[in-house]
Design a protein that fits this description.
Largest sheet: 3 strands, antiparallel
CATH architecture of the largest domain: Orthogonal Bundle
Oligomer: single chain
Number of strands: 8
Number of helices: 7
Order of helices and strands: EEEHEEHHEHHHEEH
Low-confidence stretches: none
Number of domains: 2
Structural class: alpha+beta
Distance between the termini: 25 Å
CATH class of the largest domain: Mainly Alpha
Length: 180
């Protein structure tokens, strides 16, 4: 969200997180001869910020997802309003580390009896992060392994007949451990 106006005689434009962010802390600002010029300058600053972030993202070879940096995830963790169940799932996955958790284990951690419900809650957490960071969602796979879920973790199947294990991206693990 961009706001512009005259502040102490200067034309200023400021960018803030879009609602429903937890806080309205300023993301960036710019000045110009007029509020319109300040807005254009701010848009350039934000475009450059987005470009730098895109270049820094890691390609997750297991899923083909461009993974945000720990700094980006940390920013999202501080701003996004997660439900208690989503926080529990994110914490559980971060604690599981490289071993990951199955959907059944995630369901149990969050207190859900229904795997379908826990999948929806899990995917919604990924969608909230993606929306805040303005990420393009990866191509969808199965219903469980859709683009929103891949923002949080990648699924790994050890062998046929075994349930998929979700392994949280290391960058998100660091952010969850430092923020939640």
């Amino acid at each position: 969200m961009i706001k512009a106006g005259i502040l102490s005689g200067n034309s200023v434009a400021r960018a803030f997180p879009k609602p429903p962010a937890k806080t309205q802390a300023m993301i960036a600002d710019a000045v110009g001869e007029t509020p319109e010029i300040a807005i254009e300058a701010l848009k350039k600053i934000l475009e450059e910020r987005d470009r730098k972030r895109s270049v820094q993202r890691r390609l997750e070879r297991n899923s083909g997802t461009l993974v945000p940096s720990e700094r980006e995830y940390t920013e999202a963790m501080r701003q996004v309003r997660f439900t208690p169940a989503q926080v529990t799932m994110l914490r559980a996955l971060s604690i599981a580390g490289k071993e990951g958790l199955t959907i059944g284990q995630l369901s149990q951690a969050a207190g859900y009896n229904s795997r379908e419900t826990s999948i929806k809650v899990f995917k919604k957490a990924g969608l909230l992060i993606a929306e805040y960071l303005e990420l393009d969602l990866p191509e969808t796979g199965s219903e469980q392994n859709d683009g929103a879920a891949q923002i949080v973790a990648f699924s790994h199947i050890e062998s046929d007949g075994e349930p998929a294990t979700w392994i949280m991206h290391q960058e998100l693990r660091g952010a969850v451990r430092s923020v939640l």
